[in-house]
Each structure stands twice: as C-alpha cells, then as structure tokens.
Amino acid sequence: MSCQRDVKKRRRCRRLIICFSSFLCMSPCFTTSIEAVNQNDAVSLYEAALVQAGSVSVEESLEAFRDVLAVDRKHAPSHFEIAKLYMSLDTPMDRQSARKALDEAIRLDQENGDYQLMLGELLGKQGLWLNAERHYEKVCETHPERFSEAADMVGFFAMQAFLKYIDMEHIDIISGLGPPTYHLFRWEEFGVRDREKALAFLTKSIESDPRNRAAYFDLGLIHYESKNPKGLVTASKLCLDQYPEDKDALLYCGLGHLELGDEEIVQGYFARALEQMSAQERALMESVDLIASKNEQSALYSIATTDTTRNGWTDNPERVGFWRKRDPLYLTGFNERRMEHYGRVAYANLRYGQRLKGIPGWQTDRGKAHIKFGRYLNKTATRLELPGGADGASSAISRVVQGGNEEWFYEGFSISFYNSDGLDSWRFDTRPGRVSARYTFNHKPTHYMDPFRLSKYRIPYQVASFKDGDTYRVELAYALPRYNVSASDADSGFVLENGVFVFGEDWDEVYRKRSELNLRWPELTPSGYPAADSLRNSHLVFQLAFAVPAGTYHLVGEVRDKKKGSIGTFQEERGFAPADSSLSMSDLLLATEIETGSPFPVRRSHLNVVANPLRTYHRSEPAFIYLEVYNLERDEYGRTEYEISYRIGRPGEDEIDP
Fold it and tell me: Are 374 and 340 in contact (CB under 8 A)?
C-alpha cells in the first residue's frame, strides 16, 4: 500500500512540475503584453498632455507628464517635455530640475538631436557659457543633421565672449615687500580670438542651412562692432535673399548704411521695415517716450497711435512736428534725427537683446540708454568672475561673486551698468556709494550730436513784415560771407544749395523754397568795390518775400556750399500779430539802396530795395530805410499828412544782436 501511495505522489509531483514549467514558459509572453499595454497607455497619455500644454498652467502640464512616467518610466519624450517646462519657469531651482529631467531623457535616447541642443541651451541659461559652447561643438561632430543649429550657437557664444572682451580691462595689484604696484590689463587679444571663431562657425552654419536667420544677424553684429558696417549690410542683404521682407534685416541694412553715411539709402530701408511691422510693432518703433519732454509726451499721448496703413511714412501731424523741429538740416530730403532714432532702436535690438531670455534689446536698461543717449564716446568694462556659473554646482554660499561693470562716457556725464549674476542681466548701477545710473537716465535730457555741427556757422539776416490786407508780407534777406564759400577769386565758380523754410507754431510746413545755384562771385568795379552795393565785396545777398496769415512762425534759412561743405544757417521764432485800427507802423527794412521803378511810386512793387542784412553801414555810406505806416486819416482828396523823426547814433553793446 505504501508503495502504491509513493507512486501516486511521484505522479502528482511530475504533474505539478510540468504545470510549473508550463507557467514559466508562458510568463515572458505575459510580461511582454503588459509592457506593450503600458507603452500604449503612455503614448495616449503623452499625446493628451501635449494637446493641453499651453492651455493649462505649467504645474498642471508637469503633472500630466508625470502621469505618463508613472505608467512608463522610460518614456524619454516625457522627460524632455518636463525639462522644457522647468526651463520656462527660469529660476535657479527650476533649471536644476530641468537638468535632471533632461539628463534622464538623454540617457534613454542619446541619439536624439533635440535633447542635445536643449542641453546646450540649458547650460547657457545656467551661466555656463563656455560649457555650452563646448557642448555645441561636440553636437556639431556627433549630430551632423543638427549641424546648422549647433554651429550657430557656437558662433553665438563665441560672439558674446568677443563682445565682452573688446572693451574689458582690469587692474592687477601686486603686493610685496615694497609699496603695491598697479598694472592695467586689457583683454582685446582674447576678443580677437573669439571673433575669428564666431565668424567661422556662423559662416559654416549659414552654408549648412541658408535659412538660418539668426546667424546672419550675429555675423552682421560682429562686423559692425569690428568697425565694418559694410559687413552688417552684406549679412543683412544675404538674409533678405532668403526672407525678402524681413523687417529686422531691413532695419539692420538701414543701420549699416546710416553708419556708412549713405543718407539717401537709409530712409528707404527704414520705410520698408516699418511697412512690414504690425501696428503694435510700429508703435514701439515710433515711440519717442525716451527722448520727448514731459509736455511733448502729453501731447503725443492725447492722439491716436501710429497709423496702421502701409504707406511708408504716413504720420499724424503731431509726430511730424515732433521730428521736424529736431531736423538738423532741412536742405536734405530726409530727417537725420529721425533716422538716427530708428538706427538707435535697431542697434539696441541687435546688440543688447537677451536671446536666451527672449528679451528684445529695447526693453533692456542698456538698450534704453542707447536709444536715449546714442553711442558713447568711450566705454570701460571690468571682468565678471563667476566660477561655475550662476546656479551651477559651485555656486555655494561661500563663493564670492564679483559683479561686472560697464561705464559709458558722454560729453559731460557718464552712466554705468552692473551685472551681478553672470546671466547677461545688465541693470542700471544703483549700488550705495555710487551715482545712481537710474537717476542719471531719468534726469539727463536726450543726447544727440548734430552731424553737421562742425560745418555750420551763423549768417546775418533781416526779417521785416508788412501788412497786406488780411495777411502779412514777410521780406527776408540774408548774407553769405565770401570766406565761407569755395570761391577764392573772381573767376572761380561755386555751387550752392539754398533754402528757406517756414513752419507754423506746431511745426506744420507753411512755406518752402529750395534751389541749387551755379554762381560766380559778382564782378567788381575798377576801384575794387561792387557796382551795386557794398555788401557784394564780402557777402552775397539773398532776398525773397512770402505771405502768411497772422500767427507765430519758425523761420529757417540754410545755404550749403556743395564743394566746401560749409553751411550757413539762421533760425528765428517770429510772431505776426493782427494790427488794430489805430495808427501803426511796419518793421524797418534796412537797405543799401532803394531804386524807384516808376516816376511816382505808390506801392512796394514800384521800388527795388536792396536789403542790408548786416544792419551796419560804413561812416561815409548812405543809409536807406523802407517802412510802411498804416491807418492814416485821409482828407477829402484822399491825401495823408505825416512826419517822421529819427535819430542815428551808436548803439549800446546790450542793444546789438550778436
């Protein structure tokens, strides 16, 4: 009996072993099916998380991608999306969290070029710019399909080093047994090395992908900062070959030509750029908040924003008047001050934008200072020492962070900036014990150097107004000194651009007369004096007349010698008030000669008055004065009776118009 029971037990054991073996054989298939189900669920959850990304908060998106990882911990795209979300929060702790998630995504999928490019971006945002540059160089070798983007970023970081080093200097203090010695050290040599590297990688990036828009602008900036504005124009035009109506490329073309002095070309590029902008973009470009006075800002705020029609220079009268009164030379066909403003905005965006943070240059403190004050005369920069980056592993509490400084020098003042964290976060320097740069920025008026200031000189002029019905007849005369034109003798000819411009109180245009004159100096009599009047021996006299209603006007006269480049100017604000019915008299028109054109002259047109804008006479020279008297009573025959008394004497010094 016991033997039979043992046999039965052995049979049952064999059956159990067979069943267990069968189970072991089936379990891998079962595990594979579970993984497939998990992967399918992960894909569904991932797609749902992608759909809602951007429409929900960052925290909700993070939770959605964590749900994917709860199902499939090895889902690399979810780690990548989590890294992107943490990077968008842009705090030191969040960047550390982004690094952990991105490292895991790269561990799971080392061949993914997107992950490698984001690692370079993250290193840059952490302040580890040299590490980022080296990483992108490695990506150029390991991921040839992403060469253009990686090479562009290598060029970008090398360019940043170049821009940092070209003006950087510091003082080394060497202490020993004797008194300390001071040594000024400049970093320009390092900047040249980084410049060549940046140019090489940016050029390769464009060759790999001609549609890489940012590389053109970085290339142009390097040339511009190397005092080669033609290089900026060339790079911007290459960009326009790929993007014919790119507003930034058009702006930078205008900036390059502005630096080259190609005034006739500048306006066309800026006009085309404005035409490509949205209403909001154009309003920002046209904004004059940084350069207008408080009263002007109030006036401009009370009107509508920039005209959104695409007609180039379509403007409202207030903005036109704002720029017109700042025009340094009305003889030219464009407003140099306005072109300078657009050029400053373009340069601020090109040079001071923070690409890694997505901040345009005009929003930064340095960009605002450039728009308001223009290019500095000189700049000094001190080095920024941040071992390990702003939020890298070595940014411990014990680490001493030395901020970087920049100081821009202008005529009579300077303004400084401070970078405390190594992340390109330049701010106005407001540290205790220093002149507050923000105060300087807010209280210093806008700075602009007239490009024609060295060629301009004041010329003598005379303005006389006469009542003419409901309007005023304005007679204007001005004299151009012979020594300020290119004529050196009686046989030499010269070409003058001559213009008179009259604007209303709000700088709306009332009158304009512009001409180009080919002249020879007036012939002299054998005695050496001119035949007609004494002024022509040393001055060339211009006279004209025009009619205006009563009101306040800005009178401007300009004469430019095209060969010599000298510019004679005058400008005056003059009011013409309506006369009442009482006895009154016109202005006095001083003259060197008055000739009658008829035997019995009864009106101004019967007289030829040769004005004397110098308003001076030689001792033996006759003085002629033309004037008009109004509202005289007439007798029954229409005649008037009056007497004029005058006195001639030497005026006091305080009575002479300089």
Answer: yes
Q: Which pLDDT score is estimated for 441? A: 96
629 backbone dihedrals φ, ψ, rounded to 5°: -115, 135
Q: How far apart are the first and last CA of the chain?
A: 145
pLDDT value, residue 319: 84
The burial class, CB within 10 Å (0-12 / 13-18 / 19+), for 347 is: buried
Which residues of the chain, if any, have pLDDT below 50?
A: 1-3, 7-9, 11, 13, 15-32, 34, 304-313, 386-402, 524-534
Where does residue 42 rank: exposed (0-12), middle (13-18), buried (19+ CB within 10 A)? buried
What is the model's pLDDT at position 38?
59
Please tell me the predicted confidence (pLDDT) of residue 420. Answer: 74
| Prediction pTM value | 0.83
Ordered strands of the 589-596 beta sheet: 607-611, 589-596, 624-626
What's 455's DSSP letter? T
Alpha helices (H) in 226-293, listed in sequence order: 229-242, 247-260, 263-275, 279-286
Say if CB 290 and CB 448 are below 8 A apart: no
Q: Report the alpha-carbon distance of residue 256 to residue 231 in Å, rounded.
A: 8
Please identify which residue in the block is written with the tokens 């008299």: 585
What confidence score (pLDDT) does residue 488 get?
A: 52
* Greatest alpha-carbon span in the chain: 173
Q: How far, rounded to the nearest angstrom, does the alpha carbon of residue 643 sit from its chain's CA centroid?
A: 63
Reading the block at residue 219, the tokens are 């290339």
